[in-house]
Amino acid sequence: MMEISWTRRNVLSGLLGASAAAMTFGAWANGDDVTAEAALAARMGLDISADRLRQVKNLLAAHPAVDVHSHPGRFFMRGADLWDQSARIFLAEEDGPERSVGDMAAGGLAAACFSVVADMRSLVLTPEGGLRALRPLAEGEIWADYKRQIGEFRRLLQDGSVSLVSSASDIVRNHAKGQLSAILTAEGGDFLEGDLGRLAEAWNDGMRSITIVHYRVNEVGDIQTEAATHGGLTPFGADLVRAMNAQGMLIDLAHASFETTRQVVAITQKPVMLSHSHLGDGPGANPRLISVDHARLVAGTGGVIGSWPAGITQRSFGDFITETLRLIDAVGVDHVAIGTDMNANYRPVFDSYRQWPLAVALLLERKMSEADVAKIIGGNFLRVFAAAAA
Question: Which of 9-13, 81-85, 310-314 has maximum average pLDDT?
């Protein structure tokens, strides 16, 4: 989740009509008609042939595609009691999670990480127009809000359009039968409030990955966007890394400082993920971006980095593909995924799941093999997800 949540209405979701939104993944993948995808490409000024789009459909039918970080429809905001009206405007549901799930099916995804936002109640709108974790919180407040968000996530599952999964093999099985999968994750380990005993409860809730820090300087470690206070990972944070390894839960290092990342990598016995970022341009780069050395720390565990379509430096859909390829050049094709931060990103250049086939098409247009594209859109994540659980 970015410091500034961009709230413009997702117009692309409505371009093709309600009937397309209701289409199931299975119907999408098994069809030869690419009219909808071609129309969307034209509207975006992309020159993609019908033959290429049919190739993409076949690829997505054969290989599960996974968004490694998302907040579909800002489901985590339903039922929220926000203290600040301006923050409510920034964080309110955009089009609703049901619409986002419909777009996911229409775009040919197999799965996405549905992330609750652990430190949400501490976020305030600053005079500069950004969101920072500045509001003091009462004891137990984060845990109570975590449970509210879990309840909203469960309600989202009730109509059967998306199914909670607990393993990589579940995703593969669901993909084979045309069923969308949701991996429950948390952005921020704040809900633990320094209590490792809550990790087992989160596991029982269905959670399979935690972004251990977010925008609040919590009990776990230092973050990218505030001054260092812990010197990296705290003793509790080190214990959390070991406990997540033992539990089989995937560690996500998005938002973690370089030093926090370095210390986690020194402890973990399992591959880790950095779910949403991209490479900066050297000294003075936005603090949410990462250096090549930072990226290689994650890759060195056998892990994966989610290429992030944020408008910090990117201005177009093509820029996102260029940044993805730059990340591949830095760490290798086995260590890159896609983490859209859907519905909670900053000026996203990739802002509808209906655009997913177009991203796949542009990767193929850049002379990537189908086998390598299959790794980026889902295969690498599935490998790391399985290894974390082993």
Answer: 310-314
Tell me phi and psi for residue 279, to 5 degrees. -70, 140
Structural domains of the chain sorted by starting position, each given as residue range(s) with its CATH number in brackets: 11-389 (3.20.20.140)
**Cβ within 8 Å of residue 59, ≥6 positions away:** 360, 370, 373, 374
Q: Quick one: average pLDDT of 66-75?
A: 95
Report CA-CA distances (Å) from 188 to 33, 128, 192, 212.
41, 23, 9, 5
Burial of 18 (0-12, 13-18, 19+ CB in 10 A): exposed
Q: Do 297 and 264 touch, CB atoms closer than 8 A?
A: no
Q: How would you write 36-58 as a 3-class SS string?
A: HHHHHHHHCCCCCCHHHHHHHHH
Helix extents (H) in the chain: 18-21, 25-30, 35-43, 50-62, 85-91, 97-106, 141-156, 168-176, 197-204, 235-247, 258-267, 292-299, 317-331, 356-365, 370-374, 380-389
pTM value > 0.85? yes
- Assign 23 a pLDDT band (cuts: 50, 70, 90): very low
Q: What is the mean pLDDT of residues 98-110?
A: 95
Name residue 18's amino acid: A
pLDDT, one tens digit per residue, over 306-359 is 999 999 899 999 999 999 999 999 999 999 999 999 998 878 999 999 999 999
